[in-house]
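Slack export, channel: ligand-projects

TW: morning all. Re-posting the request from yesterday since it got buried. We need the structure predicted with the small molecule present, not the apo form. The ligand is zinc ion; the SMILES is in the block with the sequence. No rush, but it would help planning for next week.
GE: picking it up
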Amino acid sequence: MSRSPFVTLRANVAAMRDAMFPLYVVRGERNVLIDCAILAKAGEIERNLEALLGDAAIAMVLLTHSHYDHTGACSRLQEKYSFEIVASRRTKEILENDKAVAFIDDLNQKFKRILNDRSPSVFTKPRAIRAVGENDRIPLPGGQFFEVFETPGHTRCSISFLLQPEKILFPGDAAGVMETDGKIKPLFLSSYTQYERSLEKLLALDAEVLALAHNTAVKGKVRVREFLSASLAETRKLKEKIMAWLGHSQDFARIADRLLAEEYASPTIMGPREALVINVTAMVKSVFYEFVKVP
Ligand SMILES: [Zn+2]
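GE: finished. pasting the full token output, ligand included:
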């Protein structure tokens, strides 16, 4: 018998074995996916979902934010499954914007080239998006429900989902990214201050499982707490480092290059370099505008 492409995480939550994108499925009368990885994975995801669920439907997809590597396979999968999408108001706006959709497709096409995917697949505008916000509840059959928490700072559109009563937390990239070597890398792309506040908010939720969007999940209340505390410490350390460099020069591109070489040498997401440069430059700018050049 071949190895299942999924492992059971806790309760009715399964995670697809994938070093970059461990896609999460909450199984039940209404199957739910959390985030959609990249377009290049769409075919593999479809095959794996068939192996896991047979011909059962996917009723809903929860999106933690609008980034290309969380939404890439969304429209392809929606063609097959016709699910409803649940996302923040801002994510909904972004995914309904032609320019943003073209940008998400462009980065996904670049990722396809890296993975040698020559198929003609494209990311198109997803349909049926429902916006949710702070403290909204998304009920599931059988008494489970998701609680929604706004956790901006990684992006302005970032939200996290807490599956109750099991307390399985899906933070998207708001908790930082675990690199291949196990180190935690902060990703405060839209705002350092909000990112730090969001991390504190996630810590206070006392989750039992932290289902990270990249690499793997962290299990057990103590380990989740340790991970989030370490993520917070790394975040503050990186801010100090950027502040020190900004003290010498305000050449954002050069500082970003240096950061990329020193701090992001073994990324979990081996995607287009362009996306990494955009991200790291955004972090330098957020520290600059929030702490150096305060208006
Ligand atoms: Zn992201």
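GE: first-pass observations. The chain has one domain: 6-240. The first strand starts at residue 6 and ends at 10.
TW: perfect, thank you
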